[in-house]
Design goal:
InterPro entries: ABC_transp_permease (IPR001851). With about 400 residues, the chain is mainly α. Among the domains are: about 55-175 and about 255-330, no CATH class; about 180-250. Helix content is about 75%, strand content about 0%. The protein contains 16 helices and four strands. It has helices at about 1-10, 20-50, 55-80, 90-105, 110-135, 140-160, 170-175, 190-215, 225-245, 255-270, 275-285, 285-290, 295-320, 335-345, 355-375, 380-405, and strands at about 15, 180, 220, 250-255. Strands 1-3 form a two-stranded parallel ribbon. The chain has a two-stranded antiparallel ribbon with strand order 2-4. It starts with a helix and ends with a helix. The relative contact order is 0.19.
Length: about 400
């Protein structure tokens, strides 16, 4: 009876908030929140320098349309980098998949969806090809994808006959330039966009509460309640302000819906699936992952298949926005995707990085580029500034690891 009484009266442990080591907690907060703070600062800086033009409804819509393909590539590149690899071929894959789609739709008169599906199929085949050499033959991804960059660029030139093809039919163009704006309010704004944004905020809040409850149940570290509420309110405010601007322009971009679905899907995969945990394990400690029974070859293979698929999605989006296919399409896209992943918090050595961080990193690069264009900054100086931003982001990662004692 005594044992039963003790069990019954045992108090429920209070949720653990923060970290026992203040420096570790500060380092974690800087690593996870620093990119968000930097993004807000950059947005406000360009808003001041451009007298609010950078935050106008039209400009915000243009940023979404112009940099959506980079964000799609950044999702796949983040997963590749977390596993300790790199992919230098994605720009050429974007060009080749767009060229295949153009040849079928423009050159042979096939329906627009046939071209899009063919592009996705080609991207998957490319991923299988590169995944085979990396995972089963054992050639480093840097070499395989460097060869792929040259190989797929050559195939692009062959597919197009070294000439551009345009234009695509209107339906194909809507993939990257279409809008959903069926509920226009009396004051000239799109109520549908605001409704979708509000539903997204509610879903985010519910997901955060469920995650917190689960962590408390298993006695894991959680944020203090005021900070937890503040985060949800801050995200809600940003999302609704963003939606308000879109609603006063042309409505909800179709490409933003595609991007949102990809972000939600891959965030869930990387956070909650066995595959996602295995990717982090391989990048964090390859030997330990092998000893724990992770099939490293299989995981690496599917990482590159997935990268090929996402590069094809980006190829469809880019060719849709360009309204055609060009032999030079995709030049430098791999650098933009890599920059987005590293600026968003991915570690150079692998094992660290989040989809959300890569998205903010890509948006940060996009906002900087867009802001400098609005200010009339010379193109050469824009490249210099973006290069410095990437260098500082990686230096910050290295600095945090050294201060935390990670070798």
């Amino acid at each position: 009876m005594s044992g039963s009484t003790l069990t019954k009266d045992k108090p429920t442990p209070a949720p653990r908030t923060g970290s026992a080591n203040p420096f570790v907690a500060m380092t974690q907060n800087l690593r996870e929140s620093g990119i968000y703070i930097a993004f807000v600062v950059v947005v406000l800086l360009f808003a001041i320098l451009t007298d609010g033009l950078s935050l106008s409804p039209t400009n915000i819509t243009n940023i979404v349309l112009q940099y959506s393909y980079v964000l799609v590539l950044a999702i796949g590149m983040l997963i590749v980098i977390v596993a300790g690899h790199i992919d230098l071929s994605v720009g050429s894959v974007v060009a080749l998949t767009g060229a295949v789609s153009a040849q079928l739709v423009i050159g042979n008169g096939q329906p627009w969806y046939v071209g899009a599906l063919a592009a996705l199929a080609v991207g998957i085949v490319i991923g299988v090809w590169q995944g085979f050499w990396v995972a089963f033959v054992g050639i480093p991804a840097f070499i395989v994808t460097l060869a792929g960059m040259l190989l797929f660029r050559g195939l692009t030139l062959f597919t197009l006959g070294n000439v551009s093809l345009s234009p695509f039919p209107e339906q194909y163009g809507k993939v990257a330039t279409g809008f959903l704006n069926g509920l226009i309010g009396g004051n000239g704004y799109d109520a549908f966009t605001l409704l979708i944004a509000a539903l997204a905020v509610v879903a985010f809040a519910v997901q955060q509460v469920r995650t917190r409850v689960a962590k408390v149940r298993y006695q894991q570290v959680v944020d203090a309640m005021p900070l937890f509420v503040l985060k949800i309110v801050a995200v809600a405010a940003v999302v609704m302000a963003f939606a308000w601007q879109l609603a006063h322009s042309r409505g909800l971009p179709i490409v933003l819906i595609i991007l949102a679905v990809l972000i939600l899907a891959y965030s869930t995969i990387m956070k909650s699936s066995v595959f996602g945990r295995q990717v982090y394990a391989i990048g964090g400690n390859l030997a330990a992952a092998q000893l724990s029974g992770v099939n490293v070859r299989r995981v690496n293979f599917w990482i590159f298949v997935n990268m090929g698929f996402l590069a094809a999605v980006a190829g469809v989006i880019f060719s849709s926005r360009s309204n055609g296919a060009q032999p030079s399409a995709g030049n430098g896209f791999e650098l933009d995707a890599i920059a987005a992943a590293f600026i968003g918090g991915a570690a150079v050595t692998g094992g660290v990085g989040k989809i959300q961080g890569a998205m903010i990193g890509g948006l940060l690069v996009g906002v900087i580029s867009n802001g400098m264009q609005l200010l009339g900054v010379d193109q050469s100086l824009q490249s210099v500034i973006k290069g410095l931003v990437l260098l500082l982001a990686v230096a910050f990662d290295v600095f945090n690891k050294r201060r935390a004692g990670v070798r």
